[in-house]
Amino acid sequence: MRKKLKVAVIGGGSSYTPELIEGFIKRYQEFPIDELYLVDIEAGREKLKTVGALAVRMIEKAGLPIELHMTFDRREAIKDAAFVTTQIRVGMLDARSRDEKIPLRYGLLGQETTGAGGFAKALRTIPVILDICKDIEEVSPHAFLLNFTNPAGIVTEAVTKYTKVKTIGLCNLPIGTKMLVAKMLGVDVSKVEIEMAGINHLNWTTKVWVEGIEKTGEVLDIISGVKGVSVKNIPDIEWEREFIQSVGMIPCSYLRYYYMKDKMLEKQLQDLETKGTRADEVKKVEEELFALYQDPFLNRKPPQLEKRGGAYYSEAAVNLMTSIYNNKKDIQIVNVKNNGILSCLPDDVSVEVNCVIDSEGATPLQLKTAALPPHIRGLLQVVKAYEELTVEAAVHGDYQAGMQALTIHPLIGSAELAKRVFSDILNGNKEFLPQFSRYKD
Amino acid sequence: MRKKLKVAVIGGGSSYTPELIEGFIKRYQEFPIDELYLVDIEAGREKLKTVGALAVRMIEKAGLPIELHMTFDRREAIKDAAFVTTQIRVGMLDARSRDEKIPLRYGLLGQETTGAGGFAKALRTIPVILDICKDIEEVSPHAFLLNFTNPAGIVTEAVTKYTKVKTIGLCNLPIGTKMLVAKMLGVDVSKVEIEMAGINHLNWTTKVWVEGIEKTGEVLDIISGVKGVSVKNIPDIEWEREFIQSVGMIPCSYLRYYYMKDKMLEKQLQDLETKGTRADEVKKVEEELFALYQDPFLNRKPPQLEKRGGAYYSEAAVNLMTSIYNNKKDIQIVNVKNNGILSCLPDDVSVEVNCVIDSEGATPLQLKTAALPPHIRGLLQVVKAYEELTVEAAVHGDYQAGMQALTIHPLIGSAELAKRVFSDILNGNKEFLPQFSRYKD
Amino acid sequence: MRKKLKVAVIGGGSSYTPELIEGFIKRYQEFPIDELYLVDIEAGREKLKTVGALAVRMIEKAGLPIELHMTFDRREAIKDAAFVTTQIRVGMLDARSRDEKIPLRYGLLGQETTGAGGFAKALRTIPVILDICKDIEEVSPHAFLLNFTNPAGIVTEAVTKYTKVKTIGLCNLPIGTKMLVAKMLGVDVSKVEIEMAGINHLNWTTKVWVEGIEKTGEVLDIISGVKGVSVKNIPDIEWEREFIQSVGMIPCSYLRYYYMKDKMLEKQLQDLETKGTRADEVKKVEEELFALYQDPFLNRKPPQLEKRGGAYYSEAAVNLMTSIYNNKKDIQIVNVKNNGILSCLPDDVSVEVNCVIDSEGATPLQLKTAALPPHIRGLLQVVKAYEELTVEAAVHGDYQAGMQALTIHPLIGSAELAKRVFSDILNGNKEFLPQFSRYKD
Amino acid sequence: MRKKLKVAVIGGGSSYTPELIEGFIKRYQEFPIDELYLVDIEAGREKLKTVGALAVRMIEKAGLPIELHMTFDRREAIKDAAFVTTQIRVGMLDARSRDEKIPLRYGLLGQETTGAGGFAKALRTIPVILDICKDIEEVSPHAFLLNFTNPAGIVTEAVTKYTKVKTIGLCNLPIGTKMLVAKMLGVDVSKVEIEMAGINHLNWTTKVWVEGIEKTGEVLDIISGVKGVSVKNIPDIEWEREFIQSVGMIPCSYLRYYYMKDKMLEKQLQDLETKGTRADEVKKVEEELFALYQDPFLNRKPPQLEKRGGAYYSEAAVNLMTSIYNNKKDIQIVNVKNNGILSCLPDDVSVEVNCVIDSEGATPLQLKTAALPPHIRGLLQVVKAYEELTVEAAVHGDYQAGMQALTIHPLIGSAELAKRVFSDILNGNKEFLPQFSRYKD
After folding, report:
1. Where is the domain boundary, A289, A307, A325?
2. Catalytic residue among B16, B254, B313, B325
3. Model-level pTM greater than 0.90?
4. Structural domain of residue A139, as residue ranges?
5. Which long-range contacts (CB under 8 A, 24 or more apart) does B274-278 make?
6. Count of domains in chain A?
7. Any chain B CB within 8 A of the CB of D400?
8. Whole-complex ipTM
9. CB 3.0-4.6 Å disulfide test: which of B94, B301, C100, C392 passes with C401?
């Protein structure tokens, strides 16, 4: 008799959940969930209720025998689950808003996952994720933790360094890149393969193939000097042709923050004046979405959800679970422990690379290019060093590690600014940073 | 019969030469030079004549049997020399002035060896040094090339990567640090030992001992929040206590450019208004020096030379030659091929580390601290990647490598600025950058 | 219009060819060969004629539009081929016989691919393969060289170190192991996956799964103390239970030569008395086969071919070509350049590991076990060092490298024996070792 | 006021002690011992008494203010000692005799430190040394443990892996090699320097210099084909010229066991017939020595001690202590944690290499030859893997690790023999191997 297939979604009250439900419904034949647990914290009771009710309607409409449970008891949800996914936001959108605004005070980029904003998010998020891991270790040690919570690479690294939980970090950027490349080249996405190398939100598409024929050069030509080649939540400033040719690979959208720092900052400051931070925008979208979700006749994912960002999120997540469940051995780009795949980075850090997915998880593939060129390597190494320090700061409440993390980050690069920003982060997040309680003023 | 000991000084007409002569005179017993060749280019004929005449007077006064030769024939000077030293300045102080000013146009630090200024200097200098190496390979293949020409680390790397010449890169910073530490701790310098790790002008004193007892913590305490702990040519802005403790090691003076970028830039902009660039200052000092040198009664190093910067330069140079010549096996901090000593950097790059000096040159010692912490490692790796790209740009006239070198440098960090600065550098140095002739507009 | 698919088989007159033809016929739908060239040397004219005629009858019977060419002009065969395969035997079975007998004179194991015998074969084979590579570089630089010629790992390493040819080394051991494991576990082979680590003919099956569930322990239990778990050409001496448990992985059959050296030697010496060497046996089988092949009514692979050894050889070969041709991205275990996948071995050596096969060739997968345990690592390292030295000896006629290769080989382990065996090898193979002409007595 | 300088000698009743005392007396000016503790176990009471009394007479004769203490209380001896040295022999010469005889039963080399004999010795010794380390950690955490107890490399590795004690492993082979080389070249030893690379009792002198001029080739020529170039306790079989040239470095005497396995075995078997094992010889020498030591008028090291083997032992030991005590920064060849100095070996193993000795201990120097050639590397790697497994077996009583250690050792190389030898070792050493109590039959 087949063992029951149980999935637990931590942060189940998220506005993203309907997308995930849609994914589960579409792929039910391959991935026959028996029990789906949506868990949330008390503060999210209303949202969970709303989203859960919509999920029930969606499943009913599909006529599938998926049992849906809503709960505030995390251990109950995790117990015997095959997969645990996290889509939590510690401190909710207010915290994100602060993460985006604090750096801007000092003329630094304010972004949810990158730079000082991502640092703050990591400090808040990692302790909660490690708590979840403790539960998994105790009540479902064989479960896979599929982590979508940003900063996904840093969080994955904390989990692999400090717990025994089998984990894979997942981002929608790789699948989004593949979709974008397919569109650019005018071919169906099923014919496109890409190789990515780097770490979460700091990676390069090193090669592109269409039906096995390399097309990297064509894509580099296409993306030079045009708009429309960025992901939703990153300003769409075009790459300069000469520069992109000197990179020789396709930088991910987040690399605009590094390569076009000044223009990106300018854009953020303008936006702050005119429409507020991205958090402010998202808040509005979320309100609208929850208003829609409450409609008792709604029984499908509303199209407005697409404005939310996180496109292909559900696809990436369900793909991953399906491939593990079915021992598929297809290739997906996910965040895992390095173990020598990127030889320029330490063995115990997280990297985002092409992996074969099977019943044991994700096994990285050797890069087709034997060694990353110095310009990729250098940037990767310094940002990874920042990430390692951030993990230490988040796990141990290590002020000195945090200070150095911010100081060496290429988007900060100054001990003075680091100190001020860090101080504001600690003060603005008091309730979410118990590990730093002794440093608050 | 002892083989004649011959030394060739390339750039012999430099204002530094009297200091070197003084060093040779003081250490004659240990390092009995038979023939000293001062070589220069035609454009430096007058200076060579002046400096050479002073050198002759100094040697005569000392009553030593050193034969002094002045020549414009480099190969004649190098032939059968045991040591070749370089103290050249391609493009002279005018070029330095440009190196310091161009970056400031774009709000970037303008410095002779660091950032965009150091990049420009490397592009001008490396082809000339490789030419010298060709001569050495042909007419004195067993000679040691002791390179003092900045950026010394990058130049040394170019030589080890592209020639067969035995080379050691030398800087006065390590010996200066030791002197400074002795002064701080109020002990004689002979009792002080330090361990340094890093690359030229980007290194950290990882440990300090007095008579074998570690005193690193004491020094960290002393340097926090005080002035007077920087080398001559770097603004003396004090380290913030909390920050320096989080570094945990003693940063070299040049690290102020990285850790206190904004304050350092502000200072440079002020100075530019009030007293011009450092090149402008040095020009005046040089004029004064050469006026003094012309005095036919002067037969010693004039004390004014000390204002010139480059303190301990002669000491460092003569120490190194003496230890090689006498197979001394003492420890000096010099620039050599890495070969795994700093495991976070590639094997074939140059590093500045503690070495045992003997008749075969410099052999690095393993670091007492097994692995550099992430905050040191990250910064070191990204700057080294910049250096590797700079070597490629300088040797091959590779525009794309140069573009990427500047883009990832922590003091630039922007593709746009990189492009503009690079363009100004190429235009401002046309006559000195034949390797880039096809890129000039 | 589809480009013509051309395959060149070097050593086409081999008795194995009918098996390969059968494979091509079976997989024609997926791998539609247009032109198949069988090439051989003049000395093999008769065999080529016989085998070629049989191949023609087989293709005709299958009714497929494959053009078969027989030629002695290697470059004509290689020109524009998509795949070149090699199944050559330099010096033919007489040489193999010598390889097996010479070591036995000194109480050393005599084996075609392992120890001194494999060393001799490598010396004879590598120069010929490098010649073939020169042709490929000139007339078909995009062709894949699929090398089946033993010692396959050493030959592959010589090709990757000394040519630009895209090459993959192939052995039937991995596929044979999978078949054997399936049989042991009583499941269909399609449900079995294995992970192998090591180098050709010295590898361990680190993990076994059936439908994604790990079964390594079960297999270890099964193979302890029983017969029937060795490949055809290796004496079937059973593994001792306690020992196999301490290995913790499944050793390949060739590891019997290392782990049970004395028993294996004893067996060889007995066999030598009673039935001669394996070469002698094979000679008889070959004679029988060619007699059969000459039957003008034979139009299929005769079942007697299976006695020949090399089971699954055709399957392995055609699988590999089909996966490359169709960009399949399935996993096969082949010999490729290491590049860090086995971190205990140098980057530039060949290893035999799980790879994803696609249109660009074979990309290794990270091992599921992060690091090989010391008992695996140590043996692997010393035998790989032997292989590296053998490549140098074979390519450069380097006597000293050869001497050291034999001395450190675990099956020789003595400078005295190494010297004697090497001398006999050089004397016995004079005509096939031009690179050692100056060492012969 | 100077802190008292205390030294504890564990195994103080050894026949070697007078040599050590002589060394302390000779070097008193540089190394002014205040308190010298000779410690032994109850079973060695008589020997300790005899040796201690001789030591007192020697010190009195020298007229030095060294306080000599004899004790059976190890912690008292260790407390506040600056240096702890070990010269213990667990199981005494009877155990050594077994170690030498057991392997010979199976046609394997029987040697105290190498192969199965060294393995047995490691199993007996490591638990005792780790016990001593526990004492050091508790009562003298800053003490240096200078370990002379064989197998010195394996013991040092166990200490660095499983304790926090600062340790250096010491052997008289490097100093003996230097002496021998000086004699061969007819120069004073003070003019000779050597570079050694490898692990204890398996190393190669990679380079030899006289007054800074390389003489490696000369030494290779000299040692070819002559007798008289082995250490005392290893049969003096001459190196074959062609072979030694192909090594390209000077193998240590113990490498005869690897390179001339058969001849060495033959010699051992002969000796066993005629004069017994080396342990038997040593027993007689020891008896003679202790008879001499009892002479109440003897107040110097008797010359007969030189027959004992272990020449230069005292010199090596006192050199090391003196250099640490005086922060000398001279170069000595000792056993330390690898940490990347031999890049072909793991970081956490022990290696025997050139080190700078100062107040903090031993800091390895980078090899002058960047990478060890494959024939050195391969042998080193497999024997190191054996050593790593032996440490695990010794510390944890891990039978499987022990089984594999013996199997892969180049002087055993067979699972069958490994099993039998291991069984005999366990049975013959029951009382000394508590960690294996569950495996004894």
Report:
1. A307
2. B254
3. yes
4. 6-169+281-307
5. B277/B96, B277/B97, B277/B100, B277/B101, B277/B110, B278/B96, B278/B100, B278/B112, B278/B233
6. 2
7. no
8. 0.95
9. C392
